[in-house]
Amino acid sequence: MAGERKGVCLVVGAGDGVGGAIAKAFAAEGHPVVITRRARNLDQLEALAADIRAAGGIAHAKGVDAREEGEMVALFDQIEAEIGPLEVVVFNIGANVRFGMVETTARVFTKVWEMACFAGFLTGREAARVMGPRGKGSILFTGATASMRGREGFSAFAAAKAGLRIMAQSLAREMGPKGIHVAHVVVDGAIDGVFTRANRTDVEDLLDRDVILKPEQIAANYVWLHQQQRSAWTHELDLRPWSETW
Known about the structure:
By secondary structure, the chain is of the alpha/beta class. The protein has helices at 18-28, 42-54, 69-83, 106-131, 155-175, 194-199, 203-208, 215-227, and strands at residues 8-12, 33-37, 59-63, 86-91, 138-144, 181-187, 236-239.
C-alpha cells in the first residue's frame, strides 16, 4: 500500500563496513533503522546514525553488548515499545582472529564463540519472539568463508561461524512455516573497509577491478533477500568477487 509505514530494521554489529552499509540500504528503502555496537563504540555509532539521518533516513544508535542476554531482551522490548515493530533483524558480528591451535587459549575460543555464535543465537531468538506472533519479517545472518571450512589458524572463528550457520538453518526450519524468512549470507573474500585498508595498499586498484567485495553491493543483497516473495525464498546466499577461488 502506498505510503504504508515500513517496519524497523535492526542491525546488530554496525560500523564503517558491511553493517553500516546494510543500515543505510534499509534506511534508503524507508525502514527506520536501529544500529548497535558495544557502548565503548557509541561515538562511532552515533556518527553513522547522523549520516543516515542526513540522507533523510531515521536512525537510532544503541550501545549494547550482544553477548549479554538481559541487554538483548531489553533492546528488543525497547524497540517494539518505543520505535516500532521489527520487520528486519540482521546479525553482523564477526570476531575474526587468527591464532595457531596451540596458541588458542580457552578464553580466546570462548570469547570468539560468544561474539560470533552465541550473540547470533540471542539475536535470532529475540527476533523470533517478537516476529513470530505477527507472522512476517526477515532474520538475516552474516557468515564468512569460515562458515563453510576451517583454515589453519582460524579454529575459534571457524567453529563459531559454522555454529552460527547451523543455528540459522534450524531457525529457518522452525520459523519458515510461521511466515518468517531466515537466511544466512556467506561473504567469501576480502571486503573494502578499515581492516582491508589497514593491511593493503592496493585497495583502490582492487575496487576498480571488482576483485574485492564492496559493502554497498553486499547490502543490496540483504534488501533483496528481505523483499523476496515466500514462494521462492533463499535460505543461503554466497557472495564473492568474480575472481575469488572457491
